[in-house]
């Protein structure tokens, strides 16, 4: 069981051949092995960036390690990247045969032994960022079309697993930016669409994709969406990243001001329901069973419907788990990435060449006809001149 990066770690270990037989069930909350940037092929660039940042002047890993050991923990924790994108630098790497991750996670999902799984996300995962920035003081009107395009580009152009970055970037802009800037729309529409873009890319689409891979092995897969919005979070009206963990463990983070006088019974009800669902899955392999007294039945999902449990104080089964994000990132973006841009460019060049050849052929034909007409004219002139001389 894990949450966020912990869920990604648990998911990776559950697929690793080095952990064969150690996992009987897996519960992943807001994280998975397929999240973008969870693993890298190598850490060479990150290592040498740290070397430059610390001014170590090391020529190999051993010298860099010795240099890092001489730095205080404050210096290490204050390390900032020189060039920031949306992806972490220091993450697990694919370490080859015999390693913890001998292959990329997506390859491991195709043939590794798997176990029953519960996986899900909150309704508004990416809203945690704006919560930390104090959403109520943000100016929605300050987010323009151009800002949205830059955010989409930064998200897609720097993702190393994509091949056709430009195509996917344009598709992302069309899906989450250009269709959301209708002048008749409220100012918050583009803002909310960009939040969806991040939630779908980082959390929702990887979760639904991992679920479909597990389903191919005829294993029980239970999808959920944590949709409960507590009235005790003051003016926060979003189910942000981590809110499911807050309820299941009944804790309050430092950044969150929480009260206890606004329908606290609903929050307690959600805590009890979610805790029992998790306990049932751990004990029996199914979140709900005949004797639990629930008025709902959490059934396994299917690849076609992506049915899921909407967790509130009165949970219910729904279909189409984050369908927009699932279709765009798991279907459409992958189709764009599979396009052979090199062949398209070559075909376009050949088309231009054919056009040039056709133009040259037409000009040659015109010139041939022109010179033929001149020759005919000269022949007629010469014949007429000879006739006039004979008459004289």
UniProtKB/TrEMBL annotation:
<keyword id="KW-0472">Membrane</keyword>
<dbReference type="InterPro" id="IPR051093">
    <property type="entry name" value="Neuroligin/BSAL"/>
</dbReference>
<feature type="transmembrane region" description="Helical">
    <location>
        <begin position="357"/>
        <end position="382"/>
    </location>
</feature>
<keyword id="KW-0812">Transmembrane</keyword>
<keyword id="KW-1133">Transmembrane helix</keyword>
<dbReference type="InterPro" id="IPR029058">
    <property type="entry name" value="AB_hydrolase_fold"/>
</dbReference>
<feature type="domain" description="Carboxylesterase type B">
    <location>
        <begin position="1"/>
        <end position="326"/>
    </location>
</feature>
<comment type="similarity">
    <text>Belongs to the type-B carboxylesterase/lipase family.</text>
</comment>
<dbReference type="Pfam" id="PF00135">
    <property type="entry name" value="COesterase"/>
</dbReference>
<protein>
    <recommendedName>
        <fullName>Carboxylesterase type B domain-containing protein</fullName>
    </recommendedName>
</protein>
<dbReference type="InterPro" id="IPR002018">
    <property type="entry name" value="CarbesteraseB"/>
</dbReference>
């Amino acid at each position: 069981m894990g949450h966020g990066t912990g869920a990604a770690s648990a998911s990776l270990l559950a697929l690793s051949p080095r952990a064969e037989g150690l996992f009987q069930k897996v519960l992943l909350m807001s994280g998975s092995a397929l999240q973008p940037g969870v693993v890298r092929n190598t850490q060479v660039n990150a290592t040498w960036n740290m070397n430059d940042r610390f001014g170590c002047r090391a020529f190999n890993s051993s010298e860099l390690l010795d240099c890092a050991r001489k730095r205080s923990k404050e210096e290490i924790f204050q390390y900032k990247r020189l060039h920031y994108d949306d992806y972490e630098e220091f993450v697990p790497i694919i370490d080859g045969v015999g390693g913890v991750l001998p292959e990329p996670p997506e390859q491991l999902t195709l043939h590794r032994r798997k176990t029953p799984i519960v996986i899900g996300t909150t309704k508004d995962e990416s809203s945690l960022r704006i919560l930390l920035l104090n959403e109520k003081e943000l100016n929605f009107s300050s987010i323009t079309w151009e800002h949205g395009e830059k955010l989409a580009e930064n998200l897609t152009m720097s993702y190393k697993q994509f091949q056709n970055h430009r195509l996917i970037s344009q598709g992302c802009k069309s899906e989450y930016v250009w269709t959301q800037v209708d002048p008749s729309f409220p100012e918050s529409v583009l803002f909310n669409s960009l939040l969806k873009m991040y939630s779908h890319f980082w959390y929702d689409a990887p979760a639904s994709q991992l679920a479909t891979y597990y389903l191919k092995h005829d294993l029980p897969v239970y999808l959920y969406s944590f949709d409960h919005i507590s009235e005790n979070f003051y003016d926060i009206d979003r189910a942000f990243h981590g809110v499911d963990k807050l309820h299941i463990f009944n804790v309050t983070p430092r950044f969150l001001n929480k009260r206890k006088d606004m329908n606290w019974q609903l929050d307690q009800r959600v805590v009890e329901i979610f805790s029992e669902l998790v306990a049932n899955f751990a004990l029996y392999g199914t979140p709900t069973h005949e004797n639990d007294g629930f008025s709902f039945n959490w059934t396994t999902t299917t690849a076609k419907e992506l049915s899921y449990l909407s967790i509130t104080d009165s949970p219910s089964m729904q279909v189409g788990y984050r369908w927009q994000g699932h279709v765009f990132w798991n279907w459409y973006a992958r189709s764009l990435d599979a396009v052979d841009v090199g062949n398209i460019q070559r075909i376009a060049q050949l088309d231009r060449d054919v056009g040039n050849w056709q133009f040259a052929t037409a000009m040659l034909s015109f010139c041939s006809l022109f010179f033929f007409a001149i020759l005919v004219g000269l022949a007629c002139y010469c014949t007429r001149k000879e006739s006039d001389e004979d008459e004289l």
